[in-house]
Design a protein that fits this description.
Elements lengths: L18 H17 L3 E2 L5 E3 H7 L5 H6 L2 E3 L5 E4 L4 H10 L8 E10 L11 E10 L4 H18 L5 E7 L3 H17 L6 H9 L13 H5 L10 H16 L5 E2 L11 E9 L7 E7 L3 H4 L7 E7 H11 L11 E6 L1 H17 L5 E3 L6 H11 L3 E6 H5 L2 E6 L7 E4 H10 L1
Parallel strand pairs: 1-5, 7-8, 12-13, 12-14
Antiparallel strand pairs: 2-4, 3-4, 5-6, 6-11, 7-9, 9-10, 10-11, 14-15, 15-16
Helix pairs in contact: 1-5, 5-9
The structure holds adenosine-5'-triphosphate and magnesium ion.
């Protein structure tokens, strides 16, 4: 069939064999965030293009090349969200959640970036992120990092991920550093690639973020931001480092870590892995004390992170041999005869009322008895409950044990709930 419609390149279906790993990841994330008293916020997937241009920065890769932007029927320029901090801040200002308040928030959802699809890099992908407003000290930066470290531990992937941190200083220090950096790159202009030449004028710090292998030597030798920090930022940074050390969190200071978005100041961090090839960033974050004001709100400090769920899933499924198994079944209900067929759905409903956690799969459709038993076996259920018209007339059901070597038994329907409770 040549006219088959397929999914868009870089936008993936998450299939039934994969969703159990996703659900596991999502519930670990939800539970952990709840245990730190963070509250969920949900924003629209589409925002005005201007929001991202202003927040993320007009000369960033994201805004320059990666956004899905379109005019709606009203000729407003809209974009599918490429990140969620901008929308979160927008919502916070709009609903008066930020000024003179403390907010610890989290969100989870799909994002869109027009990138070259490859392993760990997609055009629709998912993030879980957290944002904290109204707190400016290194203590909250440390809390966010400790929380992510706890998540890796809970997921059993902590041995695969390491932490890199850096400080970007305040705006003035960054401006000074920017000048130093421009001088350095100008003196080595012949070594710059086209992207970097362009960034030299617009956003020279972003040259440090270049992934071009030919540029790495030049970048390694560049002047370091940490040597040009303002005093307040230097103290903030050393205090964060100290907190991480006393909590037993290992880290490396990566002076080239600037992150791909313009809104950061002071602390930036990234959790990286060597296990996923060049798509090694699993979680990134930092402080953005100027963003709320930049988006029209009253000055409010902010700090947050976002983690890429596809990359975490890739780490989890590398470990998890359970992959490929469908959701578990406890009880399969097979039935023979017209009355039994009608009764089986009702019986299943009764059992679900009594045992809300029990996973019951009822046979539906056609299939002789042998076929039903085969399906029951394949489902992975412990027990097959068999209803026949004959047995029903005696108000009885048969329990067949699919995993244990035990004779099947017949019990009365009235005793079924008690039997299940005791077994
Ligand atoms: P990278 O350096 O890999 O491009 P990034 O710095 O652009 O990542 P962020 O904007 O900080 O990424 O987003 C946070 C996280 O979201 C990343 O650490 C990564 O795990 C994930 N992520 C970013 N872009 C993609 C993508 N296109 N597909 C899948 N996951 C992504
Ligand atoms: Mg990127």
């Amino acid at each position: 069939m040549s006219n088959l419609i397929k999914a868009i390149r870089g936008m993936n279906d998450i299939l039934p064999t994969q969703t159990s790993v996703w659900q596991h990841l999502e519930s670990v994330l939800r539970d952990t965030l709840a245990s730190y008293c963070y509250n969920e916020i949900r924003m629209p997937i589409v925002e005005k293009t201007q929001l991202f241009a202003r927040a993320v920065g007009a000369s960033t890769d994201i805004v320059e090349k990666e956004m899905y932007t379109f005019d709606d029927r009203n000729d407003d320029s809209l974009s599918l969200r490429p990140e969620m901090t901008a929308g979160c801040v927008r919502a916070g200002i709009e609903h008066g959640l930020l000024y003179n308040q403390e907010q610890r928030l989290w969100y989870m959802g799909s994002l869109f970036r027009y990138e070259r699809p490859q392993k760990g890099r997609y055009r629709q992908f998912h993030q879980m992120g957290a944002e904290v407003f109204g707190l400016s000290g290194p203590d909250i930066d440390a809390e966010l990092i400790l929380m992510t470290a706890r998540i890796w531990k809970k997921l059993g992937i902590d041995h695969l991920i390491r932490l890199e941190i850096n400080s970007l200083g305040n705006a003035e220090a960054r401006q000074n550093y920017r000048n130093v950096l421009v001088d350095y790159f100008l003196a080595n202009k012949e070594l710059l690639d086209d992207d970097s030449l362009r960034r030299l004028e617009l956003n020279p710090l972003r040259i440090l973020d270049s992934k071009n292998p030919d540029m790495q030597e030049l970048i390694q030798a560049a002047p370091k931001l940490t040597e040009h920090l303002d005093e307040g930022s230097a103290t903030h940074f050393s205090s964060l480092c100290q907190r991480l050390e006393s909590a037993g969190i290992e880290y490396q200071i990566n002076t080239r870590l600037v992150r791909g978005l313009d809104y950061y100041n002071r602390t930036v961090f990234e959790w990286v892995t060597e296990a996923l090839g060049s798509q090694g960033a699993v979680c990134g974050g930092g402080r953005y004390d100027g963003l709320v004001e930049q988006l029209g709100g009253k000055t409010t400090p902010g700090v947050g992170f976002a983690m890429g769920l596809e990359r975490l899933i890739a780490l989890l499924t590398d470990l998890d041999e359970q992959q490929g198994l469908l959701g578990e079944v406890d009880l399969y209900i097979a039935r023979m005869g017209e009355k039994a067929e009608k009764k089986s759905l009702l019986l299943a409903e009764d059992l679900r009322n009594i045992f809300p956690g029990l996973k019951i799969l009822t046979h539906c459709g056609t299939g002789n008895f042998k076929k039903q038993l085969k399906k029951a076996d394949k489902s992975g259920a412990e027990i097959c409950l068999i209803l026949g018209d004959d047995e029903l007339s005696k108000n009885k059901v048969t329990l067949k044990f699919l995993r244990e070597h035990k004779e099947q038994i017949q019990i009365s329907i009235d005793q079924l709930a008690d039997w299940l409770k005791n077994n």
